[in-house]
Write a structure and sequence with these properties.
CATH architecture: 3-Layer(aba) Sandwich
Largest sheet: 9 strands, mixed
Order of helices and strands: HEHHEHEHHEEHHEHEHEHE
Number of strands: 9
CATH topology: Rossmann fold
Number of helices: 11
Distance between the termini: 61 Å
Helix content: 25-40%
Strand order of the largest sheet: 1-4-5-3-6-2-7-8-9
Shape: globular
């Protein structure tokens, strides 16, 4: 194929872009030194079969109780992001998902929340793997490693559009963690991260942004990251998370954060008795 033919094919591809690419820049959003370009990039095909087998909310027409459980969690988050409470919350559409300690199921909850919100008719969702030391979102979704958050914070990717990927689930977009770096956690607490959070919160106000964050205990940068969010979901594993751990994890969170607890890996009778999602403001 000649250079001219390649150029024509590339232009035709741009002309045929689907509705998920309506985020192209408006005249006010043209690139400048002070503007972050948020146009998405490649389309990633998720391992939907593997996700469904592992309990993720792939919309295959079946009705499972876990769908209803995440629907209840999602509805409270959406109400706070776009309802009356949004007026009292800073960055109400930015949601951190974390846990006191590792291996309590926070990534499972973060992905399922994103998949559930992607089913909404009038909302899009951006899932960010911010657990930069132990990233697992890409692995769980079954997609190949891509440059992501670390590359952007290091300046290796100049535009946010370089690290936002469309997926083959229409309203779900992804920012991977990227390649681990010895200053990964410090980058989360950087001014550039704060600027990025502000852009994500304000550029597309109808979008939910979910951050799969590092655990709260032992990673001080998570508290800094939490201060950029309007809402927080703390995943608690039944019979593993202690009250002391939960208190230690939430004690220093921003008091204005709308904070909820998700009981993960719960025995059914316990969930029926105590409820799946507890919600409140502050720690």
């Amino acid at each position: 194929m000649s250079i001219i033919e390649k150029a024509l094919a590339k232009q035709q591809q741009k002309n045929n872009q689907t509705s998920v690419e309506v985020e192209q820049q408006t005249p006010q959003e043209e690139t400048s030194n002070n503007t972050v370009d948020l146009s998405p990039k490649d389309i990633l095909a998720l391992d939907k079969t593997g996700l469904a087998e592992r309990g993720y909310l792939i919309d295959n027409g079946t009705r499972k109780s876990i769908k209803d459980e995440f629907r209840q969690i999602k509805r409270k988050l959406l109400n706070n992001a776009f309802g009356n409470a949004s007026k009292t919350l800073h960055h109400s559409n930015l949601i951190m998902v974390s846990s006191a300690k590792p291996n309590e199921g926070k990534t499972f909850v973060a992905i399922n929340l994103a998949l559930s919100i992607a089913l909404e008719q009038d909302k899009t969702v951006l899932l960010i793997d911010a657990d930069v030391l132990r990233p697992s979102v890409v692995r769980e979704l079954g997609v190949e490693e891509k440059p992501g958050l670390i590359e952007y914070l290091l300046g290796k990717s100049e535009k946010v559009s370089d690290i936002i990927y469309n997926t083959d689930i229409d309203k779900l977009k992804l920012i991977p963690a990227g390649k681990p770096h010895h200053l990964s956690n410090e980058l989360l607490a950087s001014e550039k991260m704060a600027t990025l959070a502000n852009e994500l919160a304000n550029r597309y106000p109808d979008r939910i942004v979910i951050f799969d964050c590092p655990p709260l205990i032992g990673v001080t940068e998570t508290l800094v990251l939490a201060s950029l969010m309007g809402q927080g979901v703390i995943v608690v594993e039944e019979s593993k998370s202690s009250i002391a751990d939960i208190q230690a994890a939430t004690r220093h969170l921003n008091e204005d954060l709308a904070l909820g607890l998700v009981l993960n890996k719960a025995i059914r009778s316990h969930k029926d008795l105590y409820g799946y999602y507890g919600y409140g403001y502050g720690a």
